[in-house]
Amino acid sequence: MTTPSAGFDQRRFKSIEKDGFNRIAQRYADSAHLRAGLQQALLELAAPAPGERVLDLAAGPGLLARDALPRVAPGGWVVASDIAESMLRVGLEAARAEGQPSLLAASCDAEHLAFAEDSFDLVLVGLGLFILPSPERALAEMLRVLRPGGRLVLSVWGPREAVPLIACAQACIARLLPPPKVERPSVFRLGQPEALAPLIASAGFARVQTQGFSFENRFAQAQDYWQAFLDLAGGATEALSRLPTDTRESLRTGVATELQPYQTEEGYQMRSQVLLAQAWKPQAGA
Hints:
Layout: H1 10-23, H2 25-30, H3 36-46, E1 53-57, H4 63-68, E2 77-82, H5 85-97, E3 104-107, E4 120-126, H6 135-145, E5 146-157, H7 164-176, H8 193-202, E6 206-219, H9 222-230, H10 234-241, H11 245-254, H12 256-259, E7 263-264, E8 267-280
Parallel strand pairs: 1-2, 1-4, 2-3, 4-5
Antiparallel strand pairs: 5-8, 6-8, 7-8
């Protein structure tokens, strides 16, 4: 599913996501180790080069942007963009602490980018496209701001059964809480090449390519896993924060049931799959 269900309120959804990611901004940055291998794989695929202009979209605390910045020196620049201002603030503070004060940031909706046409050589989107209510609109905006011949490189979660890092928590929530009145867009909806590649191509991109990537996580206790999920899932974290304390505690302890298949002598070990994609904006006249 790429379009939201009937009754879905895009404005309310975006507001909750924004509030959630603002809430977890520092914790999201601190949990970067959970997906460090994925970040490096995406950057290696993107291969930012000296002098290039890069947009890190749905950037969060600018993890990709900060890693890309030294790769585009000299002469290049990087903009981190996100709807959540606190995420960008955390990223800018980290960049300054790392000796990278030249990182730029702009808060805007990915479906309505505040950049001129042909502004960037490269657009990066790390685990963000599936969050957007209208990924088709966002991709059209990415195409618009890329220069002819510019490229898009992104990652999305794979299919539900291949992403226990997210799926175990969602299964626990579904087991212990009443079903939602309105279905949210699934974070797994673009996890198959046959869903993602045509979507990117329909926006006008050419030479769409996809490839799988997996990474491993280990957690000493079920509660550590649950906290890691909360540190990743902005909108879900915001919604759960509004529940009574005893309900939230039942989720925190109850997730051990869903984690049983991943239990080892040392705790819990799981491997999650993502889908990487790259595509190019056609050259003028092509």
